[in-house]
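Aggregate trends can hide what the representation actually does to any particular protein. For completeness, the protein is quoted in full, as a sequence line and a line of C-alpha cells.
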Amino acid sequence: MEIRHPSAAQDKLVPDAGRRALLAGILGSYVCSFIPLPLAFADDPAPAASKASAAFLSLSRLLTGKTSLDAAQADRLYGAWSSIEKDFEGQLTQLAAFIAQEKLDAAGLQAALDAQKSPLAKLPGRIVTGWYIGVVGSGKLARCLTYESSLMYAAVADRVKPPSYAYGPYGSWGRNPLAA
C-alpha cells in the first residue's frame, strides 16, 4: 500500500475544462441578466424621432392645454388621422395659419371657426377627442387607440382609476352588487 503525501496529490490536480466552461456560462448569463432587454437587441440605440408632425404637436398642446404629451400616443393619433382624413397635414397647416393670423388662443378658437363657417371647424374637436377619449374617427372608421393613458384619466388619476380593472379579489366583478 502506497502512502501519498497530501501536497503531492494537490500538485497533480488538473482543472476540469467542462466544469470551468459551465461556470463561465452561468456567470455570463447572470451578468447579461442585468442588461435591459431593449438595449440588448437594439440596432440603433438612439431614440426614434416622432412621426407626428410639428403642426400636429403644437396644435395638440394648444388645444389640450398640456405642454408635455406622450410621443408614442401622438404618433398613433397622427397616424390614425392621416389614414382616415384626406390631406390631414394640410388641414393642420391651414388651422395653424388661421390661429397665427387671428392671434387666437384655445378659448376663442372654436367661436372664430364657427363664426367664419370654416371647413376646419370640426378639426379641433376631433383632435381633442382623440387625446382625451382615445378614439379617432367615427362610425365604421372609428378606432380606439388608447384607453387607460387617455387624458381624461390623467386629469383625475389622483382619485379615479380607469374602470377596466377589478380592484377587489378575483371574480369580484362577477357578483351583482344589488343582490348582496
